[in-house]
Amino acid sequence: MPTLPLPLATLCTLACEPSLLPRVRMAIAVIAQEVFAEPATTPGYPLRWNLAKTVLSPTEAQAASMTVGLVVFPELLAAAAAANTTDPTAMAAAITDEQLLAAVRAGWNAVAGVAPATPGESTQEAT
Questions:
Q1: How many C-beta atoms surround the C-beta of residue 76 within 10 A?
Q2: % helix / strand / coil in the chain, to the nearest 5?
């Protein structure tokens, strides 16, 4: 695994940054709506749909727990590091809405409990 561009303590302050939490809550709600619109044939759909139903109105605790995983998503980590500061507000501001939505989409299956596709299985891009 490559070296992290930011220390874990800095990532912790970013994950706890109050300005990032409402954005994470909204990103979760947006992706939940996307999952509801997926065809039932989507790999892992029952688990994906159940997560969407559970987090459609994400609580502060749900968003906070997902934020910890999101801030180490490679694109978010790179954006935070590119801010060239350890100020959590500035790092959170450096993360675009598109990057945040992409991170929630990419992590949806893992949070839902959908196992990765095995070699030879049909795969569909995660939403």
A1: 25
A2: 60, 0, 40
